[in-house]
């Protein structure tokens, strides 16, 4: 009879069991995923304070990847990060879902995403969660030019 399995290790004392990933970590991930040998299909870094710098680093790696889903909810991504991700859409063909809920993305970021969406036919899901009037109008106009998007949140 086999001995019972060992219990899972306890997290370190002092509340240090979970440490968020910041922009430098996103830079490293962006470099890694852009390597030809990387076969990741989805990245979910939601809840990590990546900020615009981290989103831009991931965006730089996207064109050379096969990543189909990128989730950056609650990641402190603002207009500059959204614009960097929008720019990456022009040169990537694999991204099908971009999740950016609960981020401080305003009209400039939404407008950048809308402009990319107007010509990028591969994206099927865009989750922004909260967009002001100007950004919402830009997104609706983009859908008139490109109706490949299936879900807009």
UniProtKB/TrEMBL annotation:
SUPFAM superfamilies: RNI-like (SSF52047)
Cellular component aspect of the GO annotation: cytosol; nucleus; perinuclear region of cytoplasm
Molecular function in Gene Ontology: GTPase activator activity; small GTPase binding
Span list, region Disordered: 1-21
Pro residues bias: start-end ranges: 1-12
UniProtKB keywords: GTPase activation, Leucine-rich repeat, Repeat
Example GO BP: nucleocytoplasmic transport
Family matches, as PANTHER family: RAN GTPASE-ACTIVATING PROTEIN 1
Protein name: Uncharacterized protein
Origin species: Emiliania huxleyi (strain CCMP1516)
């Amino acid at each position: 009879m086999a001995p019972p399995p060992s219990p899972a290790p306890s997290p370190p004392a002092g509340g240090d069991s979970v440490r968020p990933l910041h922009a430098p970590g996103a830079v490293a991930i962006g470099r890694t995923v852009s390597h030809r040998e990387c076969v990741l299909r989805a990245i979910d870094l939601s809840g990590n304070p990546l900020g615009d710098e981290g989103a831009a680093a991931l965006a730089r790696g996207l064109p050379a990847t096969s990543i189909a889903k990128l989730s950056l909810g609650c990641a402190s991504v603002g207009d500059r990060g959204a614009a960097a991700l929008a720019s990456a859409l022009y040169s990537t063909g694999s991204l099908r879902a971009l999740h950016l809920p609960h981020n401080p993305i305003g009209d400039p970021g939404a407008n950048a995403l809308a402009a990319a969406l107007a010509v990028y036919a591969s994206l099927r899901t865009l989750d922004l969660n909260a967009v002001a009037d100007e950004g919402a109008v830009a997104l609706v106009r983009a859908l008139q030019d490109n109706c490949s998007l299936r879900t807009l949140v």
